[in-house]
Amino acid sequence: MNVHPSHHGAFEHPLAPWIDAILEREQFAEALRDVALRLVAMHDIAPRIVRYTANLQKWLLTQAILTLHFERKTDPTRSGLTAAKLLDFFVANNVASRNTAVAHLAEMRSYRLLLDAEWAGDKRLRPLIVSETAEDLIRQWFDGHLRSLDRLDKGRRCDLSIAKPSLMHFAHPRATRRLFGEPGWCSPPESVATFVWTESGSNILHDLIARLPKGELAEGQITIGPLRISEITNRYIISKSHAQRVFARARDLGIVGWQRPGNRGDLWVSSALVHDYRRWQAVKFAALEEAFDWAVARTA
Predict the structure, then answer these.
(1) pLDDT tens sequence across 31-86
(2) Which residues on neighbouring strands pair with residue 226, listed in sequence order?
(3) Which of 146, 137, 139, 136 is closest to 292 using CA atoms?
(4) What is the mean pLDDT of residues 215-241?
(5) Which pLDDT does position 10 carry in this prediction?
(6) pLDDT for position 286
(7) How far apart are CA 289 and CA 149, in angstroms?
(8) Other C-beta atoms within 10 Å of 135: how many?
């Protein structure tokens, strides 16, 4: 991925030390549960909008759009968003095929997350505007993650972000550009990928993690309580056949299962899935922590 001019030389140090430090923090499991609960709650409020980040590819597509949008805000000399520019960006950076990217942009326009600016020139060059709804949602996502980071070290990141909203405009692009280049995020372990590379799979995985019992978890199978496939399909607006395929693949990997035949009784998840999820999420938290510290120093 091309680096924003203000980021030249920014990533000379690996993210690994931040990741390891986060995983070692005693409160990370509970902070992660808080984020999972917030993400599921955001879906429940606006399910048809939040679905645009509900699997990893859509997350990458949407975050790339927001990255270019915020970089334009912090550097007015940069050209504005256009469909052609976004499509070239997606394809050049292996985010998605042109057809997938076109469909994603069309859906975001349909739900008015992206708006067409008034334009009298060539329609192919018509600027796009990120709607207030989209900005409000990413603000909730961003500050929610800062709140969980604060829980780890009793920091004041969220308070700083609320007091100075422009910090997100600097920190978000830096974090997402970092994540685009991090295999630990874009190529998660098979246990995580089984969910997050499928439609609404990220939401399903967050939901499972939010149901984990509190405290130290045992190795092996961890019971999270009764959960039927119909609850998943109704909540995340997906077909029964799709949900069954996702859970069948996960069951074949030995990372989820029901205690009774026919997907009945309590559902369990494996400690291996929990460990893989935590490390995957730690990559995102580390990128946000490093980027926010950088933004604070840059705008001081």
Answers:
(1) 999 999 999 999 898 887 887 788 999 999 999 999 999 999 999 888 888 888 88
(2) 266
(3) 146
(4) 93
(5) 55
(6) 97
(7) 7
(8) 17
DSSP per-residue letters across 103-160 = HHHHHHHHTTSEEEPP--S-GGG-BEEE-HHHHHHHHHHHHHHHHHHHHHHT--HHHH
Residue 140, pLDDT score = 94
Domain 43-188+280-298 annotated CATH 1.10.10: yes
* All residues at 6 or more sequence positions from 54 whose CB lies less than 8 Å from its CB, including other chains: 43, 199, 200, 201, 202, 203, 236
C-beta separation of 180 from 186 below 8 A: yes
- Per the listing, tokens 């972000």 go with 161
As a whole number, the mean pLDDT across the chain is 90
Query: What does the domain layout of the chain look like in residue ranges?
Result: 43-188+280-298
d(CA 107, CA 52): 9
